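#struct-help
A.M.: can someone run this one for me? Single chain, 191 residues.
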Amino acid sequence: SGLNISSSIETTDQTEAIISMMFNSEEEEKKPWKPLSPLEIYDILKNVECQWWIAGGYAIESFVGEKFRDHDDIDVLILRSGLPEIRKTMSAWELFPSDPPGTLRPWASGEYLPSSIHDVWGRRNSDSPWAFQIMINDFDGDDFLYKRNHEIRFDLKSCTRVDQHGIPYISPEFQLLHKALRGQSKKTTLF
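D.P.: on it. Structure tokens below:
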């Protein structure tokens, strides 16, 4: 009359395998975005036991203190070591790592993501629009490692800013370095 743990694990694994087989990355990537706001992200992540930051255009706007444009997405930056905590905290969300060269796939519970993965997309369920993108950053001791060249480092403390609502965001120096080398035209409209 007790719960059969191995049967529950087996069912979860089978369900995840079915979802994975039915998942079409190209179709899913075309689905619309309705990004959460920084305050909504804060409400979800405020009690996690790992460091996180709002990144991307919202980080630049937080630093400058004004909005420049509407946002198609929202970026949340975390350290790789925080992945298990983020996965646990967001267990009710559908999370999809982007396997290089950018193919989305379901994130199986208990799966540790390899160092080749730097992005995870999230949404409430398969009928919901995409709500956020988690950007994963590596670190060494107290230093961020720039993902394109680990010789470029930023002190974690100096990279952290906090807005008037208590929401952590990444410093403009780190954010602009990341954006500058990507060459995305929509980002240049900020200035």
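A.M.: thanks! Confidence is low (pLDDT under 50) at residues 1-11, 187-191.
D.P.: also worth noting: The chain is about 35% helix and 20% strand.
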